[in-house]
Write a structure and sequence with these properties.
This protein is mainly α. It has one domain (about 1-180). About 75% of the residues lie in helices and about 0% in strands. Helix 4 runs antiparallel to helix 7 (about 155-175), helix 5 (about 100-125) packs antiparallel against helix 6 and helix 6 packs antiparallel against helix 7. It is elongated.
């Protein structure tokens, strides 16, 4: 978990240097998923439940469902992002090939940052300024061009693919799964 948090912090503080460090570290995607993203999603779910309890005083079942939906939203977003990028990235890479492990690591780190943003938004629910935090993820996606071997001329398309694959599923799944909360 510490390596996962360290890599995400590096990406937030200095995205270009962060992706270089991710490349040098060459983390194992399975290990990052099991010891990084999944625990972070559980923490995000707990924060979501605590925020709802604090603001609304909802019942226990509603709080548990809210936490589960929040955690599931990020985990499903990871798999959706992975599928979208595996399908779309070969069209914009330099040689038409993709490194599956790099795409997995990219998705794990970006979705993890989205989960951290979710934790921050739940910790300060009345602050609308935090709703602009996903723009940080757009910058991180932009700086990942070399890491994902994307053709320089297709950087704009890569950013669009990244927004569609990383940011959009988090919000869409939140909307789709919210009726389950009650």
């Amino acid at each position: 978990m510490l390596l996962y948090l360290k890599l995400m912090l590096q990406l937030v503080l200095a995205p270009l240097k962060g992706w270089e460090d991710v490349e040098l570290t060459a983390p194992n995607p399975r290990r990052l998923l099991a010891s990084g993203l999944v625990p972070l999603c559980v923490i995000a779910g707990v924060c979501c439940s605590l925020s709802a309890w604090w603001l609304t005083g909802s019942g226990v079942f509603t709080l548990i469902m809210r936490g589960v939906v929040c955690a599931v939203k990020y985990i499903l977003s990871y798999y959706i992002a992975q599928a979208i990028l595996m399908a779309l990235l070969p069209r914009i890479t330099v040689d038409g090939l993709i490194d599956r492990e790099r795409v997995n690591v990219f998705c794990l780190l970006c979705i993890g940052i989205m989960a951290c943003i979710g934790i921050i938004i739940n910790a300060f629910p009345m602050e609308d300024i935090f709703l602009f935090l996903p723009l940080i993820v757009v910058v991180i996606i932009y700086r990942s061009r070399r890491f994902l071997c994307v053709d320089r001329k297709k950087t704009g398309v890569m950013i669009a693919f990244g927004i569609i694959a990383i940011i959009l599923p988090v919000y869409l799944l939140g909307r789709i799964l919210s009726p389950l909360i009650g």
